[in-house]
Amino acid sequence: MEAEVARPGFWDDSKKARGTMARLSRDKETVATWRELEKRTQDLAELVALAIEEDDQSVREEVNRELADFTSRVGKLEFNLLFKGEFDTRNAILAIHAGAGGTESQDWADMMMRMYLRWAERRRYKTEVLDMSTGTEAGIKSAIIEISGDHAYGYLRSEHGVHRLVRLSPYDYDHARHTSFALVEVLPEAEEDVDIRIPDGDLKVETFRSSGPGGQHMQKTSSAVRITHIPTGIVSTCQGGRSQLRNKEVAMRVLYARLLELEMKRKAEEQAKLKGERIDAGWGNQIRSYVLHPYHMVKDHRTGFETSNTDAVLDGDLDGFVEAYLRSRIGETR
Fold first, then answer.
1. Which helix or strand (DSSP H or E) is residue 282 part of?
2. Which of 104, 247, 268, 297 is 20 to 30 A from 195, comparing alpha carbons?
């Protein structure tokens, strides 16, 4: 890749060049990490030899400290080997949609958005709410969030599917128990014109007035954008920003991500047919239940992983669920 970057005319195609530079940066960081660890093994070996030769307690203690830190570092890198998907290193686009049930489900979707933002904050990932449609009385109808960081998509792909909440309703005068649903979509960030190329004739772009709250400007001007990919019928809409140009940019980013996901699913189905494997019909079905009444429990139906600490989960502590999912998918490439 460095040789490619050095060639004359490399920047003639700026979009492709940016994609290559991003991959080069990631790969150089990976190589640098392992070279550093290689050097640390040599330093540790010399330190161990010194501790044995001098039989010095202080040197032995230093060896133990260094070895504990080294083991922890390698353990984290070993966990990264679970990421086998082609796009696992990418940033992620997270879409949350409230299910049927009005205010209850919209409040649940809002709780989920907070949960994922808190999870990203714990990992020091950068987040940006690209688009959001607020609920009629409370919560949100939908939201699109970009989460940027190392292996963001690799971690978050475990969250794709329907999430079910059971609780005593704060919006019901009888304080009855309600079940709410929200759909989470997780898409890898696509590199425009590198992963997917879209001829201009394949797109239908429409503008309209924003339907949600957001001030007179948004409701009086046609700032909302709807883009339809004619060959597939996939529609991407954005109306959260005041600028039509900004909304079109966001809608295109989401459309590229959806088309990349479609291509990933097509390849997975082809591989499964060649191997004679059964296609998982559960993609997008209920994956996890969050029960807040009559007891406290969050359970993942794919892996069986569960915890009674619902408050921690809703505050973004999802690592146990993510790790259990990744370990359950060892050997797969999606």
1. none
2. 247
What is d(CA 198, CA 192) in angstroms, rounded to the nearest whole number? 9
Ranges assigned E (strand) in the chain: 92-98, 126-134, 140-148, 161-168, 177-188, 203-208, 224-229, 234-238, 286-291, 297-300, 306-307
Same domain, 46 and 132: no
Final residue of a structural domain among 59, 80, 101: 80
pLDDT at res. 216 = 44
Say if residue 280's pLDDT is above 60. no
User: Given this model, what pLDDT does residue 122 score?
Assistant: 94
Q: What is the mean pLDDT of the chain?
A: 87
Q: How many domains does the chain have?
A: 3
User: What is the DSSP annotation of 74-120?
Assistant: HHHHHHHTT--STTTTS-EEEEEEE-SSTHHHHHHHHHHHHHHHHHH
**How much is the pLDDT for 283?**
39
Q: 260 and 214 in one domain?
A: yes
3-state secondary structure 182-223: EEEEEEECCCECCCECCCHHHEEEEEECCCCCCCHHHHHCCC
> Residue 170 — φ and ψ, nearest 5°?
-80, -5
pLDDT at 66 over 60: yes
In tens, the pLDDT along 182-195 reads 999 999 998 776 67
Q: Which domain holds residue 8?
A: 2-80
d(CA 162, CA 181): 7
Q: How far is CA 332 from the centre of its chain?
A: 18
**pLDDT attached to residue 204:** 94
> Pick from 138, 145, 143, 86: which is nearest to 121 by CA?
145
Longest dimension (CA), the chain: 81
Query: Hey, what are 290's tokens?
Result: 């969050």
- Examine residue 87 and state whether it is found in any structural domain, yes or no: no
Please tell me the distance from the alpha carbon of residue 96 to that of residue 160, in angstroms, as a whole number. Answer: 10
